[in-house]
Amino acid sequence: MIALLDLNHVVNRLKAQCPLLENRVYQTVETNEAALEMFGDPAAFVYLAGDQSESNQLLSGVLQAHGNGIAVRLSVRKSATRSDRLNGSDAESIRQCRQEILTALLGWKIPGAKTPLEHSTGSLTEKDRYLLWADTFNTTDHLTN
Asked: For 80-101, how does the pLDDT look when each residue is reduced to its tens digit (9 = 90+)?
């Protein structure tokens, strides 16, 4: 059976190394429909953001380099009003949580991966009373049998 990366390793690492999240780290699928109030504040959601494989290297069997995008979406309840989209307190909450997440993941190799995690992108969105910051990390493993 071909093994895919287990994102529970990422969840466990963030729980162990990000005290501001207070163990509020969850593996999920990408969705904007989550009832964020259920998860506490701040919280992080880990999901596969995409993948891409290279050509098979074997004539008999499977050996393909397999790139993985792994997203960590940070959810922080807004303290800013509608007219003040992002105040200093909100910005500082996001900065402190991201600092812990980046420190925990950058350069770390997920068990089964061939390369350590590298940061790719980050972006801010809003949903209801929450600010959502999503960081995407890249790593490579091999699909093989």
From this structure: 665 555 577 888 999 999 999 9
